[in-house]
Amino acid sequence: MTSGPSFPPLMQGINAAGADPFEAACAEAAAGCDAGTILYDASPDRVRAAIVLAPEVPLADAAAMLPLTGVAVQNALGALGPSELAVHLCWDGPIRVNRGLCGTVRGATDTSDTGTEPGWLVTGFELIFARESTAGGETPDETDLMSEGCGDLTPVDLLESWSRHLLNWISRWESEGMGPLHAEWSGLAHGIGQDGTFLGRSGHFLGLDEKLGLLLRTGGQTMLLPVTDLLEIRS
């Protein structure tokens, strides 16, 4: 019998048992569950997890938990995967492994007011361990962890490592500010210096502002897309 993941102190896990952990976490958060609650669903083909957070800062600052969650995913794969595994993060959520799409990061909160402290914030991720079929080249831009040499990696290992890296980064963010997170995420960012489309807007991805907002050059002007624009608002 396979045991469930063990999480660090201040975090507690709930097996979502096949349900969408992200939606379950949003429901738990709205119902007033403890911060640090992790909802997860681990199967041989994919792993999904989401954590309930209660940041004591305005949403404009708390939104950093979304890219922070992605950094923790990358750090976990970097620690457990083969040394040649290249994991990069797209600003708007997708996770790329050896350039192929392999997962995503998402977030939700209970307010759209960036100057207000949110009642709760949920961030989560999904990673594909194995696809049903990779024959025929139907999805050449997609991949899975098994195809990229992660045959020894288990979903439980990944969940445990992710939670530890997440806690470490939250602690650093609280004590050191945005600097370390900004440096780490910038080094993992996919598409900086290239043209792309983000939240329906196309242009040249110039870089990131101090809060990891995307600077997009389009039509001769530079616009800022803040991280808060990526959050789903749940009333």
What is the strand and helix layout of this fold?
Layout: E1 12-15, H1 21-30, E2 37-42, E3 46-53, H2 59-62, H3 65-80, E4 87-89, E5 94-97, E6 100-109, E7 121-128, H4 155-176, H5 179-188, E8 195-198, E9 201-208, E10 214-218, E11 221-225, E12 232-233
Parallel strand pairs: 1-2, 6-12
Antiparallel strand pairs: 2-3, 3-7, 4-5, 5-6, 6-7, 8-9, 9-10, 10-11
Helix pairs in contact: 3-4, 3-5
Instruction: Give the strand content.
Output: 25-35%
Query: Biggest sheet: strands, sense, closure?
Result: 8 strands, mixed
Shape: globular
So what's the CATH class?
Alpha Beta
Written as H for each helix and E for each strand, in order along the chain, the element string is: EHEEHHEEEEHHEEEEE
Q: How many strand segments?
A: 12
Residue share in helices? 25-40%
Give the structural class. alpha+beta
Mean pLDDT: 94
Low-confidence stretches: none
CATH architecture: 2-Layer Sandwich
**What's the CATH H-level homologous superfamily?**
Bira Bifunctional Protein, Domain 2
CATH fold-level label: BirA Bifunctional Protein, domain 2
Radius of gyration: 17 Å
User: In the residues, how many domains can be counted?
Assistant: 1
Instruction: Provide a count of the helices.
Output: 5
Question: Distance N terminus to C terminus?
Answer: 40 Å
